[in-house]
Amino acid sequence: MQRSERTRSGRGTEAQHGLSARDLRETLDEIGICTWSLNPATGRVAISKNCHHVLGVPARCLPDHDAFQAVVHPEDRAARAAAVRWALEHGGRYSIEYRVRQADGELRWVRSHGRAEIGGGARMTRFRGIVYRIDEHRQAEARLQRLQADLIHVSRLSAMGEMASALAHELNQPLGAISNYAAACDHFLAEPGNAQIDAARTALAAAAKQSQRAGAIIRRLRDFVTRGETDRRLESVAGLIDDACDLALVGAREQGVEARIDPGPPGIRVLADRVQIQQVLVNLIRNACEALRDSARRHLAIVAAAHGDGFVCISVSDSGPGIAEAVAETLFLPFVTTKSTGMGVGLSVSRSIVLAHGGTFTVGSSALGGATFRFTLPAAED
Ligand code: ADP
After folding, report:
1. What angle is formed at CA 44 by the lines to CA 39 and CA 45, rounded to 5 degrees?
2. What is the CATH topology of the domain spanning 32-133?
3. pTM reported for the whole predicted model
4. Which CATH superfamily is domain 141-378 in?
5. What is the atom index within ligand 1 of the atom nearest the CA of 283?
6. CB of residue 287 inside a 6 A radius of ligand 1
7. What's the sign of the alpha-carbon dihedral 120, 123, 125, 129?
8. What is the pLDDT of residues 149-174, one digit of tens each?
9. What is the mean pLDDT of residues 344-353?
10. What are the tens digits of pLDDT across the range 60-72?
11. Protein residue with its CA nearest to atom 16 in ligand 1
12. DSSP states of 200-257 as a string?
């Protein structure tokens, strides 16, 4: 008897599996999964009673699709409507995340899986799915993102701390020059003839230029240490390299480092967070300068070129000793360092910044004799 029932319906009965529809419903209720179905012809929604616990909205407030849309966060409505529309038109599955607004204004993150089956003659026969809360998952994700942003920021502050004395020295130069020009003006204006006034004007113009130079250094510093949200824009590769070199090469010339900078053909641009990519370049350039400290030949090359496959490749190469064997395998892991005062986070942070931009980050040996760090970023089309 049981055998013939199975043959007729093509599947076993619920009783055979030991679970009734009620058992299933109760199990789903207990684990916090809300089930729903939508009648495409009438737009009416039937939703399980536990939707009050899952969505924070009673089932009676969700009689149809429009009422459902009304409790979805306004920023998420269009994406939800598009997913539902697509399923209704084509059949098949979708999975989306959105926020539900409750009566007290509190928001809940939920994930919704829907499935539409189109019957004969393009008629929709079934459209149903499930919804469950994902607040914890979302909160954990947000916490992780905050931690990553903190780490990136701390690593930037640490790089800045290491550069502080060289930067103070760099700032002293325009300030010293301004003081000299001011003394010269004082001298010219002590006996003001036409020639002296002209000379004082020239000295004042030169002082103004030096103050702009000091201002530019301070502006770059401030941008670099300000936390700021991730902000990706179209950036010129040459501009990114120039800015990073202005910070990272401070004091390098005095150390006898010869830097070759080739920003590639003019006009190559990338979609990037300027401060973060600057941070990657500053880390790599400063590491290279440190590696050159004990070398007789101190060459450094910073080169950018189009990669051909829609990417731009930027490399920083040096003529130092290359990567120490002891750290070669674990180079990109955090807290790996060969320096007595190193934090060992520069490379791991740089790599995660580049990967988050959709690029690659690699290390190899350099034609100059030391190490070459290369990273790619997706090229931006105008
Ligand atoms: P830190 O500079 O604080 O040590 P990083 O993550 O920037 O942290 O670098 C990790 C290690 O990688 C360095 O301690 C050094 O041993 C090695 N390294 C990085 N860049 C170079 C380079 N250009 N040449 C040789 N070794 C390098």
Report:
1. 90
2. Beta-Lactamase (3.30.450)
3. 0.69
4. Histidine kinase-like ATPase, C-terminal domain (3.30.565.10)
5. 7
6. yes
7. positive
8. 888 888 888 888 877 877 888 888 89
9. 90
10. 999 998 999 999 9
11. 338
12. HHHHHHHHHHHHHHHHHHHHHHHHHH------EEEEEHHHHHHHHHHHHTTTTTTTT-
